Amino acid sequence: MNFMSSEDQIAYRDSVATMLAAEVTAESIRARWDSPKGIDEKLIEQLNELGLNTMLVPESCGGLGLSELDFILLAQECGRAALPEPLVDNVLVANAMLADVACSDLVSAKQCEDLLSEVAAGKVMLACGHWINPFINMAHIHQWLLLSHGDEVHLVESSAVELLPQRSADPSRRIFKVNWQPKAETRIANGEAGAGLWRRALNRGALGVAAQLIGLSESILHRAVGFTADREQFGRPVGSNQAVKHLLADCAVSLEFAKPVMARAAYAVGSNSSDADCAVSHAKVAASRAAQLCARHGMQVHGAMGYTWECDLHIWMKRCWAIDKTWGDAGFHKNRIHERLLDPSTLMGAGHTFTSATSKTYNSQEGAA
Amino acid sequence: MDLRYTATEEAFRLKVRQWLEKNVPCESLKSFDTEEGFDQHRAWEKTLASDNWGMVTWPKEYGGRGCNLIQWLIFEEEYYRAGAPLRVNQNGIFLLGPTLMEYGTADQKSRFIGAMASGEEIWAQGWSEPGAGSDMAAIRSKAIRDGGDYIINGQKIWSTRAVFADWVFCIFRTDPESTRHHGLSFIFVPLDAEGVTVRPIDQLNGLPGFAEIFFDDVRVPVFNRLGEEGEGWAIAMSTAGFERGLMLRSPARFQEAAKKLVALYQAKRNDILDLSLEDAVVLCYLDAEAYALSTYATASRLMAGGNIGAESSCNKIFWSELDIKIHETAMRLLGARGELLPDSEDFSEELGVWLDGFFFAQSGPIYAGTNEVQRNIIAERMLGMPRK
Ligand SMILES: Cc1cc2nc3c(=O)[nH]c(=O)nc-3n(C[C@H](O)[C@H](O)[C@H](O)COP(=O)(O)OP(=O)(O)OC[C@H]3O[C@@H](n4cnc5c(N)ncnc54)[C@H](O)[C@@H]3O)c2cc1C
After folding, report:
1. pTM (2 decimals)?
2. In a designed cystine with B143, which of A233, B171, B172, B184 is the match (CB 3.0 to 4.6 A)?
3. Ligand 1 centroid to residue B130 C-alpha, Å
4. Closest CA to A332 of A294, A297, A263, A285
5. What is the pLDDT of residues B367-377, one digit of tens each?
């Protein structure tokens, strides 16, 4: 039993964090808001060079062959940076889903393998339109889309569908509704295989949101601590007031108890554990509570400044508010837990925290690059 | 990261389970806040110690098993799962024992540790005073050197289990000219010494769970001082670290409580009109699991050479608020019958010990450093917010 991330995982995280800190500033995020595409294409190339977009693709398909556990700390950093590029959904969900099909014995495997090598080469991008999400973020920059029709999985060229742009409260998001008709030629999986793929995609997507929410929240907290140390009223920093301290201490507590939950969820998904659904739902609920609290308290301690467009805080706050409801809202995830609690076969109580996690094998030594 | 127990860990769990299955008394003991219950719990400590299960984290030379923190967690899981009695020896196991091992002389260790491990001598903690609660450095009780002795005068309060305990470890002012955290020393006093008066204080449930202790020219040998004179504050802080840190409340306790809450919810589900109860039950279960996961994460970090700083203040806040949430939710599920005491005619099995637990949960955010004080610590030491 060991809960520590490996040295490789930490090192990979640090290198990505350093790069994001240098490249993704509040100013550059605001610049994206006014740009036609809303993204920084050079940055996407840079991230590809780090091997990020094929992290979860097996080595046999030209990827790095790493797991969700290796990626989760990076997703947290993407949140911290409020990265507008849809890296987390690309890597953790869409590319990994395509790889799942490519490595399967489905007839579409070969087709998916070919597309995957183009994705790996950075030639094309792929997004996942899961039935649980009404919109796809940044659909316009992707050449290919995975779309759901019931349990069926369709691989569709985005030029063949109609993308209806919507406006998100978060100016960093460019969301689209997809208008399309399923056709037999685009179907790459259906039935049980399709349902399994969608289910895994949902867990991966929700896990990615949980990690980003934690990173976003940490950033908000960091900003709030900095702001309240600088801002003076009554002749002293507003952060020296206990009422202010306690608001932020509560944020720290909620984060402290969301992070291990996120790590366990990544482990459960990465090891294909039978309790992955609940582990992910727990992570999503815990991260969402932390994010709501950090956004609320972070805003409060900024005073009126926090309520302005000019203050950068809303870059992080609005991302929290927007992505919090994606990949299943609190109702969806709490309901999955509730079902488990009502299931008479559920083992719970002391000693059962890792009951299902222990049933499957996962070798952490296979670790990160 | 590898969230599987090793074969050694599984074997250890099995060993604990088998021992507990054989030895845990079938009938639950009386509360250790009664004389009879205290004796029963003392006897249980003796049983635990007879097979070295009393102080599993202590080194073998002191009657422990030298367990690492993951093994400790496994032990605790099995302990709560088996419904074994509460530990009347808690102060000895987690507070004084480790401190004594770190700061005690060889003679002090051989005098006190064995008797502590066997439950022969049960310890109370005497830090708080009427004028020194959250502000512990305001301690006024004095221990003045007189040859080979100290002469103690003053008063301690809120000392848990002091009514029936044998010894109390205290912080006294040994330098009468000193102020705040200077000039304090860590001293042991037998509760039957001449000049000691223990006045029981009844808690919310009517039982004398803690006491006031008066010292009138109480004489104890210098041998009873732990560490150097004037070092009391530093030693006390290391003890507070153990307490607030990881071990005061193991996650197993809350996981078992959450499990009982879920069972109560299942039984009541068809009659529930308050829809928010479903949410409350789900969150209690999740938070108990989160506390377990976080404790495993901290244990791993400590075993890898890391340390626990202000994070222990996060722990204190989280478990104490969780305990309140679990018991509040149970009381909501029980409705108007929840107020019944066990000797009522209409009392039923279902009401169990929820009311008692509900009362006790109210004290969680107060003892071991109030949650307000913990929030100050988090803000200043973890987040680096300005003191002034
Ligand atoms: C069940 C129980 C068992 C106990 N067992 C023991 C024991 O065995 N040995 C022992 O020595 N003591 C024991 N205590 C005492 C406990 O340590 C104290 O109650 C605690 O430290 C608080 O002190 P106080 O009660 O004097 O409250 P006060 O310090 O008077 O606090 C009153 C209120 O003011 C708040 N407050 C105080 N200072 C600050 C501040 N700086 N910032 C913000 N808020 C503040 C507190 O948080 C609290 O809400 C026990 C207490 C309880 C309830």
Report:
1. 0.96
2. B172
3. 10
4. A285
5. 999 999 999 99
